[in-house]
UniProtKB/TrEMBL annotation:
Keyword line: Acyltransferase, Transferase
Ranges of residues in domain N-acetyltransferase: 31-194
Protein name: Ribosomal protein S18 acetylase RimI-like enzyme
UniProt xrefs under InterPro entries: Acyl_CoA_acyltransferase, GNAT_dom, YpeA/RimI_acetyltransf
Entry-linked PROSITE patterns: GNAT (PS51186)
Keyword Transferase: yes
Transferase in keyword set: yes
């Protein structure tokens, strides 16, 4: 008999996940399968970039990005990854399952993988994806988090039709759509960036390491009403920083916050409340930027990438994010970048689309998230 939690209306995650007792075997393609290990990083990079080139994806990866995947302590490559190796020792396919330690509203398992174009059409991808889905269900069941749950994959809108069919046949449904945008920075005289004057005690500052965790708290607050977003732990926040450019990243501080009002606000999270009581700086807006040199040739231009942008909910409407973004774009332009790029959820609740359009951003391509909701 299924027991339903009266507060959530959900059965226990162990039941909803319907995790199999054992994982399916992969026999297609005559490959040898084993978990990925750190020494695979160069071969995995070559495989992933070959797949990206074949599928006309608008990005490439660096060895630093692949190495960082193995360095994150919450990733369990020994149980949550497979690589398929041919008789000559070459990596021909890979699949991973990733869950995040900070998930508190929806527990998620993301599935990433691909097959080398030279061995496609043999059923490898179908069997590998079945393994990933089964392992993803096991990961969700083992989380012990009786929350809404999600198995998810990402796909480019113009990606291979075969991949889309694979996902949909496995029960994955498009849930969210994302737009990649760019803004020309080559002539800021003809197309100037806004001069933003912040009101009251708000102050724009360059990113500084001592403000990094305060920026994380601002991000967790800014995105708590965004579909699919979950709080980031300190460990998550500081991982995968090989592409991070501090000189292109800016923060907005409130030098005189109304501490009593914020502490009385039921939406103020426990970590922010502790920070306020300790008198620590309050970041209310932020723009965190990356640089992906490997993508320049693929796209045909150089660019700076806004990886994270947001404003605390209590400070929306005060132009904190616009000020941080404009400062970042000026810094990118000063370093010779031809464009500023970012991507945005098409259903973003903060009105970001209008802000980006007003700043001169234009659509370049789209992607989507497909999921099974549990």
């Amino acid at each position: 008999m299924t027991t339903v939690d009266s507060s959530t209306g959900l059965a226990p995650i162990a039941e909803r996940a319907a995790a199999p007792a054992s994982l399916p075997s992969i026999t297609a393609g005559s490959l040898t399968w084993r978990p990925a290990v750190p020494d695979d990083a160069p071969a995995l990079l070559a495989l992933r970039n070959t797949i990206a080139e074949t599928d006309d994806e608008p990005y490439r990866e660096s060895i630093e990005e692949i190495t960082e995947l193995f360095e994150a302590p919450w990733r369990r490559f020994d149980t949550d990854s497979l690589v398929g190796v041919d008789g000559e020792g070459r990596l021909r396919a890979y699949g991973t399952v990733e869950s995040m330690p900070g998930d508190t509203r929806t527990v998620r398992a993301f599935l990433f993988g691909g097959v080398h174009p030279q061995v496609r059409g043999q059923g490898i991808g179908r069997e590998l994806f079945a393994w990933q889905v089964a392992r993803g269900r096991q990961v969700l069941a083992a989380s012990g988090k009786d929350l809404p749950a999600r198995l998810a994959v990402m796909a480019e809108d113009d990606g291979p039709a075969s991949k889309a069919r694979l996902y949909e046949r496995a029960g994955f449904t498009p849930r969210r759509f994302y737009s990649d945008l760019r803004r020309d920075l080559r002539d800021l005289v003809a197309a100037p960036l806004p001069d933003v004057t912040l009101d009251g005690s708000l102050r724009l500052v360059p990113f500084a390491p001592e403000l990094d965790d305060a920026a994380r708290l601002a991000h967790n607050d800014a995105f708590r009403d965004h579909w699919g977003s979950e709080p980031q732990t300190a460990e998550q926040w500081t991982s995968s920083r090989s592409a991070f450019v501090p000189a292109w990243s800016f923060l907005v501080l409130d030098d005189a916050p109304d501490v009593d009002a914020l502490l009385a606000d039921a939406d103020t999270d426990a970590e922010t409340a502790a920070s306020l009581r300790a008198g620590e700086p309050l970041v209310v807006g932020y723009q965190m930027a990356d640089r992906f040199d490997e993508d320049f040739a693929v796209r045909g231009y150089s660019f700076g990438y806004t990886a994270l942008l947001g404003t605390r909910r209590a400070y929306r409407g005060r132009k904190a994010a616009v000020a941080a973004l404009a400062a970042g774009m000026r810094a990118m332009a000063a370093d010779g970048m031809e464009f500023a790029c970012l991507d945005v959820d098409t259903a973003n609740p903060s009105g970001a689309h209008g802000m980006y359009a007003g700043l001169g951003y234009e659509f370049t391509h789209g992607s989507r998230m497909l999921s099974i909701e549990l």
